[in-house]
Amino acid sequence: MDKQWVKIAKVVDIDSATPYLAELNGRAIALYRTHNVVYATDDTCSHAEASLCDGEYFEYTVTCPRHGGQFDIRTGVAVKMPAVSPIAVFPTLVEDGNVYLSPNDM
Ligand code: FES
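A: This is the predicted complex of the input protein with FE2/S2 (inorganic) cluster.
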């Protein structure tokens, strides 16, 4: 079966410091743009369920607004306490200035 892709944002809408909140199949997704590559993670922090889109990111690190935990947006790995569990990351497809995610990866 071919992989299905769903358009969820425009690249130009993704700020370079504040994650962009998107949604696919009812799941909140955070989008980031670092060095013109778009990354996607779950929006919900694995520590106490804050929205990472209320926080900020720099390069490949997003900081949770609630307790300051940090994650690597490329891998989802928690890199600063109190966050210890990883968050999910999703492959992105960028075409003609649009960002696509696949429900097959959810
Ligand atoms: S809710 Fe994100 S670090 Fe606590």
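Residues 45, 47-48, 50, 64, 66-67, 69, 82-83 surround FE2/S2 (inorganic) cluster (CB under 6 Å). The chain has one domain: 6-105.
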